[in-house]
Write a structure and sequence with these properties.
The complex is a heterodimer of chains A (366) and B (230). Chain A is an alpha/beta fold and 366 residues long. Chain A has three domains: 1-36; 41-120 and 244-365, D-Maltodextrin-Binding Protein, domain 2 (3-Layer(aba) Sandwich); 123-240, Periplasmic binding protein-like II (D-Maltodextrin-Binding Protein, domain 2, 3-Layer(aba) Sandwich). Chain A is 52% helix and 17% strand. Chain A has 17 helices and ten strands. Chain A has helices at residues 2-37, 49-53, 56-67, 80-88, 100-108, 140-153, 166-177, 182-185, 198-208, 216-224, 258-272, 274-282, 285-288, 296-302, 306-316, 336-340, 346-365; strands at residues 41-47, 71-77, 94-97, 112-127, 158-160, 191-193, 211-215, 231-235, 241-249, 294-295. In chain A, strands 1, 2, 3, 4, 5, 6, 7, 8, 9 and 10 form a ten-stranded mixed beta sheet that branches. The longest helix of chain A has 36 residues, at 2-37. Chain A is globular. The N and C termini of chain A lie far apart (84 Å). The model of chain A is unreliable at 1-7 and 338-351 (pLDDT under 50). Chain B is mainly alpha-helical and 230 residues long. In chain B, 79% of the residues lie in helices and 0% in strands. Classes of the chains: A alpha/beta (366), B mainly alpha (230). The A-B interface holds A 5, 8-9, 11-12, 15, 19, 23, 26-27, 29-30, 33-34, 37, 44, 49, 53, 55, 58, 61, 74-77, 89-91, 196-197, 199-200, 203, 221-222, 225-227, 255 and B 3, 30-32, 34-35, 38, 86-88, 92, 97-98, 100, 150, 153, 157, 179-182, 184, 194, 197-200, 229.
């Protein structure tokens, strides 16, 4: 009896020692890891799922951190609605989103400053190739009313994001344009709500053989990965424009620290710099043959497509400016050139760059 | 059927080739959930010793409470802590939200009822005669606890492992408090959720295989160890 319990004791002690040693090592390595990353200022960007899911932000992060090694950028991927709320609570330092109406609210509420439009692309209506509602090639509003009548007949299904994201907001505006209230449509059987990110919604639409509204970037990503076989049925047109902008939390907001604001401004400057804009222009070219996001600043510098510039002004400008004077904070230099719409020397350079990209695309296609 | 098989093959390749992304996420998961569990033991094991070995009024109520809390939904706890830790919340000053510490704290709270309940019953099931024997041999309170803990040792270890598995496999807290930030708070479960929504099924399967292998082999190892000692 005595001997037995003594051997049990040593076994117990040994086990406890092993566990304690393991725990100490675990905590030690963990603490060491954290202490390594600690001196960097951590910048939290709350953003939309459509940007995140394409992995574009991973590339952006690595390029930015290469240039500014003292900054660590973290992206929190949420729908635009949630992303804005996160920033309002002070849990993010800046937002990168695509819903002009709510961005304006955000600025007017005193939560954000220094908005810059950085990129754009188009929304598309996708659906099954058999196209039961017959919307192929129609205008967006014609397509929406056809989908609804087919839905009421039981021959078509619509899948909504239903997560208060920028895409969801755009969908609601499109229903409103034909005099329908998305709130009321929710009660109808053909109107499904996914309540999740763009890829998940596309997959749901794919399973249900339904129609949905998507940004073209996320669509191409999933189509090329064979996640979905839905086809683009309605594309382009002013009402389908999708404009991404960035803004920093206001430094007057009590939850903000100065370092965070300066970091945010560095990130904004990087996004609108020719380097940042070139990243937009190149992303996805190798895989999809065209960029998933088109750089906006470059567009204004080149004045290459005045029609789209006009559309963006109409849809995403507030009081005739991408960021009215009252919402700017120590960053007037960010705006002067674009406001005047002048063509300056750098445009020659960016023009060259564009040609370079174009020839690169050509060589890839060949 | 094809994508599943293809996914599994690619997943196994990813694991065997030691893909740095996969390894990094696995290591981070182990570290966060491991330290969360260890942290929880600091208060949970003394609590269960008290519950099992000290008679006091309301003991059964407290035990019942811990039992009931075992099934607390991770999202409920996640939401509660999110509001506490948010920069605009009462503990916002510490800037813990969206950091690995936040997940660690959340998981340590999550697993507390598991460690307490399981180890309490393990310690209670130790033969009461042993306690009396220790007493008659002149053991102090602490010495008597030592004797009982030694006897119920594997039961307590099993409780800790069960707690670790729960922390390791939970999604709600890691997602809500960590924010799934690459290299910082992306753990296995949030990575599975992300890669599934992104449509990278092979990566999801790889992470799931790792998750299953670790949790299951831990449970099996503990059960074997316990059998070999009793």
């Amino acid at each position: 009896m005595m001997r037995l319990s003594r051997s049990a004791l040593t076994k117990l002690q040994a086990s406890i020692l092993v566990i304690v040693a393991l725990a100490t090592v675990t905590l030690g390595v963990y603490g060491y890891n954290l202490s390594l990353t600690q001196p960097k200022a951590r910048l939290i960007v709350s953003t939309t799922t459509s940007l995140y899911e394409t992995r574009f932000l991973d590339e952006l992060k690595s390029k930015f951190e290469l240039k500014y090694p003292n900054l660590n950028v973290s992206f929190i991927s949420q729908g635009t609605g949630l992303a804005i709320q996160t920033a309002m609570r002070g849990d993010a330092d800046m937002i990168l989103v695509h819903d002009p109406a709510r961005e304006y609210q955000f600025l007017k509420g005193g939560y954000g400053v220094n908005r810059k439009i950085v990129a754009y692309n188009f929304f598309v209506i996708v659906g099954p190739s058999e196209d039961p509602a017959g919307i192929s090639g129609k205008s967006p509003s014609e397509a929406f009313s056809r989908i609804r009548s087919a839905g009421l007949n039981g021959t078509a299904v619509w899948v909504s994001r239903g997560d208060d994201s920028g895409t969801h907001a755009k969908e609601k505006t499109l229903w409103k344009a034909i005099g329908l209230d998305a709130e009321k449509l929710r009660a109808e059987a053909w109107y499904l709500e996914a309540g999740s990110g763009m890829t998940a919604t596309l997959k749901l639409a794919n399973e249900k053989r339904g129609y949905t509204l998507t940004d073209v970037g996320t669509y191409l990503l999933n189509f090329n990965n064979h996640n979905i076989d839905l086809v683009k049925l309605v594309e382009s047109g002013k009402s389908m424009l999708n404009v991404y902008s960035v803004m920093a939390d206001s430094p007057k907001n009590a939850n903000m620290t100065k370092a965070n604001f300066e970091g945010s401004m560095q990130f904004i400057r990087f996004l609108v710099s020719s380097e940042g804009q070139a990243l937009f222009a190149q992303f996805g070219v190798d895989k999809y043959g065209l960029p998933l996001f088109k750089p906006y600043v470059k567009l204004t510098e080149n004045q290459s497509d005045s029609e789209i510039i006009g559309w963006i002004r109409d849809l995403a400008f507030f009081e005739g400016s991408e960021c009215p004077q009252e919402f700017r904070y120590q960053a007037d230099d960010l705006y002067s050139a674009q406001e005047l719409g002048t063509i300056e020397v750098p445009s020659i350079l960016t023009g060259l760059e564009e040609r370079k990209v174009a020839s690169w695309i050509q060589s890839l296609k060949a | 059927m094809d994508p599943i098989i293809e996914g599994i093959i690619r997943a196994i390749n990813l694991i065997l080739s030691g893909d740095p992304e996969v390894l990094g996420i696995t290591a981070l998961s182990l570290l966060i959930s491991g330290s969360g569990t260890v942290l929880s033991c600091v208060w949970s094991i003394p609590t269960s010793v008290g519950l099992a070995l000290r008679g006091f009024h309301g003991r059964r109520v407290v035990k019942g409470l811990f039992n009931a809390l075992m099934g607390i939904p991770t999202v409920a706890l996640g939401l509660f802590l999110y509001l506490l830790l948010s920069r605009s919340g009462p503990l916002g000053y510490f800037q813990l939200l969206y950091s690995p510490y936040a997940i660690m704290i959340g998981q340590s709270i999550l697993v507390t009822p598991i460690v307490v309940s399981f180890s309490t019953s393990a310690l209670e099931s130790v033969d009461p005669d042993l306690r009396r024997l220790a007493r008659t041999l002149g053991a102090s309170d602490l010495q008597m606890y030592g004797v009982v803990i030694r006897e119920g040792f594997w039961g307590v270890v099993l409780a800790v492992i069960a707690a670790f598995n729960r922390a390791f496999a939970e999604l709600g807290i890691a997602m809500m408090l960590g924010g799934n930030i690459r290299n910082i708070t992306r753990v296995l479960t949030t990575a599975i959720a992300l890669e599934t929504s992104r449509g990278d099924i092979a990566l999801s399967i790889a992470f799931t295989l790792i998750l299953l292998t670790i949790t299951m082999s831990l449970s099996i190892a503990v059960n074997l160890a316990r059998k070999s000692t009793t």
